[in-house]
Design goal:
alpha+beta; Chloramphenicol Acetyltransferase; 2 domains; 6-stranded mixed sheet; 14 helices
Length: 486
């Protein structure tokens, strides 16, 4: 049977969303009020702490990510399922508890499928009627949860001697959270566009690829570290045509156009045709970037030994022209160089980390790695981090030295490092037997071999080299913008 997936959204302009948030926070207060220590550590975790955190998570995700990531609201439902099963095994006979467990898991699974946008009616889920039926199903499932909690808590209040708290807020915590879910049902709307919308397994900065071969999936676990899977590729480029192209661009008003801009424009055009190199690996899963490229580069405020370094991050789209690349790159670069002080967003974050004592900082970095593994790093850290991006450039030519073989970072998800060196001349014999002097530039790629196979990389690097040999092709309209595999 064909499974269709649609996307739902809620608007922060809807007052029901804010009422649902308030109810969820009230439920969290009720859950945490139950903490007494009399029932034991694990019982407190399953009946108080985890549902309380789930209620807070519901309120946060509803108001912050409800517009695009409503599927995340299924997590508190699973925590409620676990609590319901624990209560059932505590107060009901074994056959009743077993029945509640089976029904609870089934209801939780169905609710999770609805929030994730997966329908059981084939292509009917793509229609407005199918989406409306799914929302109605979710509302019915929430009502079933409410009845189950009401009945089980009623049994507990009669037969359990210490369960005498019906007059307090904590008794109604589950019902408050389920009321919030019911208001969610009333405020959910189907997204009408044809774009891809995130679902479970996706990250803020990438879409999980789900159609990879088994060897590609297993390979990330065999080689979990990026520096275990890096491959170095050196190449040299005859730059006569490229230097002519750069001079023409400068004559046409792009006064700061240079080798970096030309290489970057060629790389953008390469990503347009071969989007596989815009993938990355995080948490042993392979993702592709749906929001374009993130180009990173270390720059100095001034070309002096005393001048501090900073890292810039430029957001580019696969369809960007040479002019777009030039404009975006220099807007970001000039913003970073506007003063002698470290004033970029990255500098502010690293300065804050620098004030943390060393032992505590090790724990903070470990925590950041853990959050990154599960795709939970906040957006603002992903935005400023030089370790999260599509590619990192380093210009050794501006320093007058050859291209280096730069390592990849295990922290973050940068899969490719490109270094290019100084220009140099070589005397060669042409086809007619004459000695000619040609100018070359070396560059090196350091790539994560796990994101695509060797044949794909070879095709990409040959295409990139060909573009630089004939840079006038960069001015042609980009008619080939491909999307990565599902």
């Amino acid at each position: 049977m064909k499974h269709a997936r649609i996307a739902y959204t809620v608007s922060r302009k809807n007052p029901l969303v804010w009422i649902a948030m308030v109810l969820a926070l009230a439920a969290a207060v009720g859950f945490f009020q139950r903490l007494s220590g009399e029932t034991g550590f694990w019982a407190d975790c399953l009946l108080c702490v985890l549902p309380g955190l789930g209620a807070v998570y519901f309120a946060y995700q509803l108001t912050v990510n409800g517009r695009e990531r409503i599927y995340r609201l299924s997590l508190p439902l699973w925590l409620l399922t676990a609590e319901l099963i624990c209560l059932a095994w505590g107060v009901l006979p074994w056959y009743g508890a077993l029945a509640v467990s089976i029904i609870g898991l089934s209801v939780g699974y169905l609710a999770h499928r609805v929030l994730q946008g997966k329908q059981f009616s084939g292509t009917a889920g793509k229609t407005a009627n199918g989406a409306f039926a799914a929302v109605c199903l979710l509302a019915i499932l929430v009502l079933l949860y409410s009845v189950a909690f009401f009945l089980i808590c009623g049994v507990a209040s009669i037969f359990v001697e210490k369960f005498n708290v019906w007059t307090e807020l904590r008794v109604f915590a589950e019902l408050l959270l389920l009321c919030a879910y019911f208001l969610l049902c009333l405020s959910m709307r189907q997204v009408k566009d044809d774009r891809y919308h995130p679902t479970w397994g996706d990250r803020f900065d990438g879409r999980k690829i789900r159609s990879l071969s088994p060897i590609a999936v297993v390979g990330t676990y065999i080689m979990p570290e990026r520096n275990q899977a890096n491959v170095f590729f050196p190449d040299k480029l005859e730059i006569t045509a490229l230097e002519k192209y750069i001079r023409e661009k400068r004559a046409n008003g792009y006064e700061q156009f240079g080798m970096t801009e030309a290489l970057l424009a060629a790389y953008v055009r390469t990503v347009s045709k071969y989007p596989g190199i815009n993938r990355f690996i995080s948490g042993e899963k392979i993702y592709t970037r749906e929001d374009g490229m993130q180009f990173c580069m270390t720059v100095k405020k001034e070309m002096t030994k005393e001048s501090p370094d900073t890292v810039i991050k430029v957001h580019l789209q696969p369809g960007d022209t040479v002019e777009d690349v030039y404009r975006k790159f220099h807007e970001t670069l000039n913003s970073a160089k506007k003063s002698m002080e470290l004033d970029s967003s990255l500098d502010g974050v690293t300065a804050l980390f620098g004030m943390i004592p060393g032992v505590v900082l090790k724990f903070v970095i470990w925590l950041l790695k853990l959050l990154d593994y599960f795709g939970l790093l906040p957006r603002f850290i992903l935005e400023v981090s030089p370790f999260h991006g599509s590619i990192f450039f380093t210009s050794m030519g501006s320093l007058g030295i050859p291209a280096v073989y730069h390592h990849l970072y295990n922290f973050g998800n940068l899969p490719i490092f490109l270094a290019f060196g100084r220009k140099y001349r070589v005397n060669e014999v042409d086809d007619q037997g004459n000695t000619v002097s040609r100018k070359y530039m070396d560059y090196t790629f350091n790539v994560d071999e796990r994101i695509v196979d060797g044949f794909y990389y070879a095709t990409v690097i040959k295409y990139f080299h060909k573009l630089l040999l004939h840079p006038e092709r960069l001015d042609e309209p980009n008619m080939e913008i491909n999307r990565d595999i599902p």
